[in-house]
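Response to reviewer comment R2.3. The reviewers asked that we include at least one raw input/output pair. We reproduce the pair for Vacuolar protein sorting-associated protein 8 central domain-containing protein here without editing.
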Amino acid sequence: MDNEPDHENVEQSLCAKTTDEELNKSFSLEASLSKFSYIDLDKELEFKNDLIDDKEFDIPQVDTPPTLESILNETDDEDDSFVLEDPTLLNIDTIDSHSYDTSSVASSDSGDRTNLKRKKKLPDSFSLHGSVMRHSLLKGISAQIVSAADKVDAGLPTAIIRIKLCDSVWVALVLEVNMEPSLPSVSTMTAHDFSVALLKDRRVMGVRTCESRCLFSGSKGEVCCIEPLHSKPELKDHPITQFSLLAMASLTKILVIGLKPSLKVWMTFPYGRMDPSSVPLLAWHFVAVHNYVNPMLAFCRGDVVHFLLVKRDESGAIHVTKQKHLHLYYDLINFTWINSRTIVLLDSVEKLHVIDRQTQEELETVEISEVQLVYNSSHFKSLATGGNVSQALALVGEKACYQSISSYGGQIFYLGTKSVYVMMLRSWRERVDHLLKQDCLTEALALAWSFHEGKAKAVVGLSGDASKRKAVVADRMVEILFHYADRALKTCPDQGKIQVMEQHFQDMVPVIVDYCLLLQRKDLLFSQVYDKLSENSVAKGVFLECLEPYILSDKLVGITPQVMKDLIVHFQDKKLMENVEALIVHMDITSLDIQQVVLMCWENRLYDAMIYVYNRGMNEFISPMEKLFRVIAPPLNAGKTLTDEQVVMGNKLLVYISCCLAGRAYPLGDIPEDLVPLVKNQVFEFLIRLHSTEAPPEEEIYPYIRTLLHFDTREFLNVLALTFEDFKNDKQAVEYQQRIVDILLKVTVMVENSDFTPSQVGCLFTFLARQLAKPDNTLFVNRTLFDQVLEFLCSPDDDSRHSERQQVLLELLQAGGIVQFEESRLIRMAEKAEFYQICEFMYEREHQYDKIIDCYLRDPLREEEVFNYIHNILSIPGHSAEEKQSVWQKAMDHIEELVSLKPCKAAELVATHFSEQIETVIKKLQNQVLLFKFLRSLLDPREGIHVNQELLQISPCITEQFIELLCQFSPNQVIETLQVLECYRLEETIQITQKYQLHEVTAYLLEKKGDIHGAFLIMLKRLQSKLQEITRQDENTKEDPSLKNVEETMVETIALCQRNSHNLNQQQREWYCGCVVHLSSVPFPVDKALWFPLLEAMMAPQKLSSSAAPHLHSEALKSLTMQVLNNMAAFIALPSILQRILQDPVYGKGKLGEIQGLILGMLDTFSYEQTLLETTTSLLNQDLHWSLCNLRASVTRGLNPKQDYCSICLQQYKRRQEMADEIIVFRITLTAVVRMDCRKPRVKIE
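Raw output as returned:
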């Protein structure tokens, strides 16, 4: 549908080339669709008494041929609801090359209402499209309805029907009510169910009679909507009209049948699963698709509208192709075409939605509840005959309003209980005027502009070609703009702050400027509009400021001189000179007062604008240069630092020179082609002048080139380099090139006491080297000058700017200047000047990579980069084995230097490239400190070396050598290092730690070996020695470091006991020998004695002190002892601990009071743990009870399903069970409900 032509004015004649011929031949224009009438058939329908056979339908032989009644009566239990009949049987295209690739109806409109693909509600479109529909009350008819109801008790109206005679044949949907004839040719008809019949008028002997034939009987199914295809006289010869197509909608599907030349079913279309209360809707209309006009059938049931395009091919067969679906967020009860581009939808809450069919954009929403629409509920429920209709049809009747809405000629009539309303599309002018009446001027202009650009929707009233339509709309917009300007002046607040007035005009004036420029009415903008706004000074200022963005974007180039003058004065008054400069360079020079602008630019230092005016207004390119040189030259010659403003001016000068030499205009645009050579010659002649105009006597020669070199040597030479790129076939330009080079050399090198820095001289010769290295070079430079530059840069007597001189020489060599020097002399001078980067550059050219290592090691700024260099040489392909070997040998010669520089990098280098030569490297490292750093970086993974330790295959002796060095230089880190080290032998390592008397380390290794007893003895012995130290201290000891050592040793011993107690049983944990030194004589393994010897060791100092004369640290020792008791209580039963204490000979002799504190502390701990256990158990029980209560409540809770019909058969179930009708409700979503009768086997599921 996106490919459909944009025919907005479907109600008017469409002007196009060869309109008459194309309309008659292809029916491709829909301009006159509003004039369509019903088709005048030329022949009477020929009825056949026999049933439709296979040959008539061209159907393969089957047992029971399908009939119209059987098709209507089919149950729709298919999953995929968008399934047309067999294409070979029905001769229908299911896929069309021009149709949209959309999903099926089933995928977008399933029976589960929660899965419907609904669009989000569109925003209010009033400000975008205005009021699209005009609705009015038909007062005369409404008065007759009310009068009839009041005076003759005629009752309420039930239908508004437009019956049209077509070749004496009628198609009627017969309801179960009596219908009075509206024409003499229709007789009274009565039916007890919904059926479809054909009525035919005949004249026999001058008497009119009516013959009828039942197309479908209501006993076989219920058709609630029919829609014949009508055509207007202009399309009476359309190929489709000869089939007399009729669309019918039942509760399960739609059908399209052809009445002529014989009765034939062309298409069936099942709905699929949907809301059973939704109303089936049908509507035909001729639309233009791909420059051909064909009928399109719109049908919907619920909230999805489907469009089917009907075409006839050359063979005479009808093809039906799917078009784009329209997904809505509301359920429909009426669908009406108002023209081929616009549809009007009525939802179930009586809101009208005007939709553009192609874009699916909602144009307007109108509330029509005031109509009090008449519904056909009583007819569909057949209340007059006892309600002998199905529940499904009665449910549909709740929303049915087929006979209450009728459309004709672009008008829609709505029948209310007491009135009749008519609605139609407003013309484009009415829509604009409607916004104006509501004082929405901005919205009115926006809407009018959309009409002007042909982007508006539902356009009515615009005729003619595009230019004519634009002219009509533009005239109306001009009128609105004048009104808008008057309103802006009238509504301006007379009093208050100036900011309020500015804000008022800033909200309104830009709108006027925008639309005047969009309409290309600069004449109007700068005359009438400007004169009108100039009445108010604030409005005038805002107007002038509004022009700025358009000028800067080159959308507004020409301005009248008066407006331009006012614009410059306004910005001058507001001190916005930068804005003035930006505006001038975008303006047409003819609109400027050149003399005024030049004076203003020079006074306010607007150099860009000044250059622009000189270049464009007077074709003068040298005068601006002279003016800028006069500003920056004096401070540069005096050796002063330039101000920021002067730096900006110098940069502008360089850019300006570059633009002139490149043929570009400054600051934007291009120099006219005929002036480009002249401008280049003028600039070159200017630059090479020997002296400036009005030069003082002390001025040096070539002042302009000298000034540019002093200002920015590198950028000036870049400008020349870019210019020289174009000097290939121009003899005059080549001469200028050589002349400028000679001058550059003369002012920088060929003078004594040059004031140029080494960097500036280097930049010059780098520039020359690049020019000389070009294959088409025509420059000549004396080689002696390069030797002078080399001497100048490598002067050993000048230590200043060492890095700068080296970098300049390096750039010179890299630019191709090396061909100008003797290499051996260059290397000697570079080494003498300590230019190691130059040496590296030269050695690399000769592939002497080993010598480059010396360059890195000697260069303090780059010495750490030597590791990356060695790694690259050894790993990157392209180097020979001899070169790699020489580099490695050089690295080995400097291994001590490398290790001292970066031990980690050196170790990583060795491990990566020569892991098998680690022992050789160790032998070369005679310094023990360096060897220790190297081995630690190599073996300790915490050092960050990125090498797989498993691939190193280091022998245990190397690791043990590192451990011995670690014991010497960092004994405090031995244990934590051993925890991460691998590949060492325990016995040899234990001997090393014993050699250096590292008892904690020895205990750790014994524990790791499995000798728990030995490790414990060492720790216990250290603890006892620490305790003996504090018992010998007196009260005069001020510092007490030994007590802290006791605590640390005790904590380590406790940790040892805790780590190993898990592997012992209760008896082994409790076992105790009175004297630790006799542990070897116990009857079972001595490594089981842990906690009681530790407790005894902690209590021993307390036994020596009496209560009368307590020890200085007695309280601290009691605290530490209590800590031991608390930790051992986790592994040894409390009664065993108490029994052991009470059995002690010391305490068994009446000294129980001395350990009273220990016992009470143990009991407090026990009480706390018991309370904690009880509290935790109570919380767990409460949580379990709460979970069970919630589970029981959720299981026993009642269910309230969200839908009141079965998801399989779509039939409603009764919430109040009067019969044994069981249903299944799925608890997960509460949306799926299934009747037990629809589920097999029948299993009741709760």
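The radius of gyration is 52 Å. The chain has a mean pLDDT of 76. Further pairs are available on request from the corresponding author.
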